[in-house]
Amino acid sequence: MDNQIIMIFVGAVFVTAFLMSQVLIMPSMSSSKADRQRLKQRFEQALSGQGVGQQSIVKVRALDKLPPFIRRIESLPVMNSLSVLLEQAGRQGFAYKFVLFNILVTLAVSSFIWIIFHHLLWALVAAVFTLVVPIVWLKKQRTKYLDEFEEQLPEALEMMSRSLRTGYPFVQSLKIIATEMEGPVSKEFGVTYEELNYGREIDVAFALMIERVPSMSLSAMATAILIQRETGGNLSEVLLNISGVLRSRFKLQRTVKTLSAEGVFSAWVLCGIPFFMFLMFNLIDPHHFDALYEHPEGYKLFYVIGGLEMIAIFWIRKIITIDV
Questions:
Q1: Burial class (CB in 10 A: 0-12, 13-18, 19+), 258
Q2: 30 bridge partner residues
Q3: What stretches of 89-166 show up as alpha helix (H) in DSSP?
Q4: The whole model's pTM is what?
Q5: Strand pairing report for 29-30 and 322-323
Q6: Partner of 92 at 20 to 30 A CA spacing, among 45, 118, 137, 208?
Q7: Domains and their CATH numbers in the chain
Q8: Is 56 left (phi over 0), alpha (psi -120 to 50) or beta?
Q9: What are the tens digits of pLDDT across the range 155-189?
């Protein structure tokens, strides 16, 4: 194989593996998009009705300590989106630090590639790759953070229910969760407790919490709590019932994920077979595809195959995605 064929083959394998990691490793269960959208709109209305911004008081107080120039950078739309992603991934710090660090790493990596290979294309590819990888990593961390939060949420609700039964007020029960538990639940309930102490209304505090943790389970919990506070009733019993429902839902999701693992493995095999066969034929007989290489339209076949491969990846993902 000449250098052009090698570059096309390596590039196609990289793109396919990247899409497979992003598409097929995603959880095989999700809640209804329409339901999530309705719950999100309900809490957005709570924010707009109170006339407050999308930033929490805790974050605003931290931003006030920064120099004016840095605050102006943090207020950019792109930085706001990145800041939300950092919060959802459970990362501390400001978005400008993350961007500055990535720029420095990108410059170092691309300069190293240029010094070693003296090839502008490879340097650009290395720069793009170095910029994309941290974002992909953040999205993976966000998925991991949300999964861990949802796994801990039923236990947190049971603890809240017990504290309410022993006579603690609702706000104090949030502090108990933040103190007694660990991980994402402790952090998020602690931030919500601080928001309430700063004077936020409870619906706004929960809306900001859902913005940080876009979880269907958390949205359902917050909705039930707000309805109970408006209509009355035994909040401790409500929380205990919600905990039981969430545990059953989480158990079902685990079962579905286990059963769909075979489909994910089959997808990897099916999408990898064309590249494996192409490589094996070239290793066994290097001249096997000479007619294809020498034909003026031969290279177009590679692009057609690549396009069909991408369609197959998304089609298989659609098949193995189960709405729970």
A1: exposed
A2: 323
A3: 95-117, 120-165
A4: 0.67
A5: parallel
A6: 45
A7: 1-26+254-324 (no CATH), 151-250 (1.20.81)
A8: beta
A9: 988 998 888 888 888 888 888 998 888 888 998 89
